[in-house]
Amino acid sequence: MSSDLVVVGAGIVGASVAYHAARAGAAVTLVDAGRPGAGVTAGSFAWIGSSGVRTGPAAPLRAAATDEYRRLQAELPGLPVTWSGSLSWGTTDGPPETGPGQEIVDAVTVARLEPAVRQPPEWAVWAPGDGAVDPVGVTERLVAGAEAHGARVRPDTPVTAVRRDAAGGVAGVETAAGPISGATVVLAAGVATAALAAPLGVSVPVGPSPATLFRFRAPAGLVRTVVNTRDFDLRQVSADRLIAAADSPERTLAAIRSTFRGAADVELLSSRVGARPMPADGDPIIGPVAEVPGLYVAVLHPGVTLGPAVGRLVARELVDGAVEPMLAGCRLDRF
């Protein structure tokens, strides 16, 4: 790998890689077909939590998520993060289970944390360290941070192919505006990663996973934490706006009105269906591609939650030549 990098994709993952690599001294060009954060990143519910993590290749990354966001807050003042905690109830038929950073709370505590709840459940799982972010705002701050460290940003510039040299290694990318040279190319282009890798003889098993996000007009202070139930993931994003990750706008609106006092006037404003990049086994695909020297892949879900951690670790591998143990279970060659 070389520290002369072209990062393809300016969603939160690509922006994080670009920022951390530029901060570490790499020469970085960040290129995207649209505007930073305007793709699938913009449709994320953006719940940030490290609690409840147990097993799987992504478990160490998830466990570090909140600490990585707090680190990023210190590096990039003004990062739009809200540490509200999260409350979950009614999501399973059996008794609640807790993981690291979680506790079981009673109805009295639920009523204190969420005063507008009509009928507080007998129990809920409370994760006080959880939070949420403005995913586009975080991406924009990462891009600005990358630029402050010398990165070049090329928005509205679709990448059409990865270029190779005579020896078969990476030489940069072809774009609609002409070639961009680079000795290392990081594919962080979400579901488009597979199409860009395929002409190189590289199969990246990732596909689109639909996710619907609803925006509502709502009274100020109706929801105070991140609320997770069978009906929705719900949080307040501004004084008069809620967002929900759920399946049906009608059922979600009815559930909000029945769950919270003072919600009779909640009104649906918009729906957005995003195509989350979902690897075939659900775990991140991160690492160098041995068959194509200089090619590196970073495609994952949940990108917003894991973006700061992944960006820092990928930059360590690309710029410092480290082999990060936290990424050991995320390599492409597991397929």
TrEMBL record:
<dbReference type="GO" id="GO:0016491">
    <property type="term" value="F:oxidoreductase activity"/>
</dbReference>
<protein>
    <submittedName>
        <fullName>FAD-binding oxidoreductase</fullName>
    </submittedName>
</protein>
<feature type="domain" description="FAD dependent oxidoreductase">
    <location>
        <begin position="4"/>
        <end position="316"/>
    </location>
</feature>
<dbReference type="InterPro" id="IPR036188">
    <property type="entry name" value="FAD/NAD-bd_sf"/>
</dbReference>
<dbReference type="Pfam" id="PF01266">
    <property type="entry name" value="DAO"/>
</dbReference>
<dbReference type="GO" id="GO:0005737">
    <property type="term" value="C:cytoplasm"/>
</dbReference>
<keyword id="KW-0560">Oxidoreductase</keyword>
<dbReference type="InterPro" id="IPR006076">
    <property type="entry name" value="FAD-dep_OxRdtase"/>
</dbReference>
